[in-house]
Amino acid sequence: MAAVLWTAAVAVAVSVTIWAILAFARWWKLWKIINKIPGPPAYPLVGNALQFKPGAVDFFHQASYVIIAPWQRVSPLTRLWLGVTPVAITCSPETAEVLFSSSKHIEKSFVYEFLHPWLGTGLLTSAGDKWKTRRRLITPTFHFKILNDFLHEFHDQSEVMVRKLEEVADTGEEFDIFPFITLCALDIICGTAMGKSLNAQENTDSDYVRAIYRISDLIQVRQKSPWYWSDPIYKSLGPGREFEETLQILHDFTRSVIKERSEQFQKQLESQSQDDLDIVEDPDKPIAIGGRKRLAFLDMLLYASVGETKLSNEDIQEEVDTFMFEGHDTTAAAANWAVFLIGSHPDVQKKVHDEMDRVLSDPDQKPTMDDLREMKYLECCIKEALRLYPSVPFFARTLSEDCVIGGYEVPKGVTAIVPTYNVHRDPNHWPDPEKFDPERFFPENAAGRHPYAYIPFSAGSRNCIGQRFALMEEKTILASIFRRFRIQTMQQRDDLKPLGELILRPESGVRVKLFRRE
Question: What angle separates helix 178-194 from helix 313-343, to the nearest 10 degrees?
């Protein structure tokens, strides 16, 4: 018996040793290939992870200006090691094109896996056939006529925000406008995604409002900390336990809304013909669920769920949660950066005011889709703000096959990151890149620009499906502000200190004084 146990132990030891040797050999081969790419020195096992500063402001500044920017000047590609995991960083539009123009490199990087507990594998995080099916299913929900219907929600919530701003403006004091815009965007996305009145602008202390802000912070910290990557370890620690509690609040809210709307939908099915169920294919038939005047994204998913593509409540929740995540913080951050930049440049603000007076001459006029299209200078301001401060500061892909990027071999399976913030500052494509200049986006100035020099909504087949929605929402919010107020900013750009979290936002908000316009 002892001999048998001894033999088994030896066999296990030999197997483990062989596995370890083969694993090390594969890793060593990868190490030699990756280290041909220029980049900062890395240490065994931990790589560059311990070199990053812990604070979100310091981390983002270090990554953008201390690590990426210096290498960007000498190489189109650089590399980092997060523990034993290599990361290739594309530093130019030319190298970003290799990823975004490919129909093969569409799988999101492992860093997106930390979103799975919240978002599941919805449109943002899914891959392969599931992603293709969901993309095909959801694309019609951003049809022009459905977006036009959302415009009412944009305006109504923007008016609530303006009333709040008028109260503060009348005090003559400076204040942080960031939470006003952010809560407005949250009410908009809740109304358009779920058809639910969250009333975040009136109830800023709700559990859901606090949870949706906190969970992004927790995810970002985990993404950059290899010691938190193991689920069992993370869940046993304080941040992991807080994450689970926060997640429960978000999921309970979404589930309750889906359950309520699904029950209403089942009742409504009994009184509708099959033609009525084609709403997603034919946006001319706006039949909202539960007696509402306007369709929500959730309504359209429920209609789609009885078509050829069957969606469970869990499938629907993935997409609603994804819509909430992608459509809230991103637009809010973009609008806040635009407010600061426009307010910091009186000449630009004067042109925006002139455009508002021309397009929205009636003080009580609700902007139409045609009105938004006429706000051409405001759109240039929004685009330039997104160039300087893209809401998503980086995109990441997992390479599906070996490829050559910028003259360097990058093996299959490696994570490739496109740092939007740095690509948008490439001096080869953006003269005087730190200058805020909306005229860069005048048609005559944008002609001939590299197609991947400006990528705030990603690019290629996995570009942001809701970018028209986002631009419409941001225009509506900003038009509501600038048609009524002159803005005096109280900070310099260096004071804002971008936070390198999931979404790029200023550390101390955007402090302003507002003056009512006559």
Answer: 150
Domain ranges of the chain: 36-116+127-516
Model-level pTM?
0.88
Residue 504: strand pairing partners: 500
Name the H helices within 270-312: 297-304
Q: What is the C-alpha separation between 329 and 27, in angstroms, rounded?
A: 38
Q: What is the pLDDT of residues 384-397, one digit of tens each?
A: 999 999 999 989 88
Q: How many CB atoms sit inside 10 A of residue 91's CB?
A: 25
Average pLDDT over residues 94-114: 83
| Bind-site residues | 464
pLDDT the model gives residue 286: 46
DSSP 65: I
Q: Would you state the structure tokens that stand for residue 154, as one six-digit string?
A: 């944009």
Identity of residue 79? R
- Distance (Å, rounded) from C-alpha 341 to C-alpha 498? 14
Mean pLDDT of all residues belonging to the chain: 86
When the candidates are 3.40.50.1970, 3.30.1330.10, 3.40.630.30, 1.10.630.10, the CATH number that belongs to 36-116+127-516 is 1.10.630.10
E strands of 390-502, at which residues?
395-398, 403-405, 408-410, 415-418, 485-489, 498-500
- Whether the CB-CB separation of 131 and 103 falls below 8 Å is answered with no
Q: Which residues are annotated as a binding site for heme?
A: 464
- 433: Cα separation from own chain's centroid: 23
Q: Which two tokens stand for residue 441?
A: 């986006």
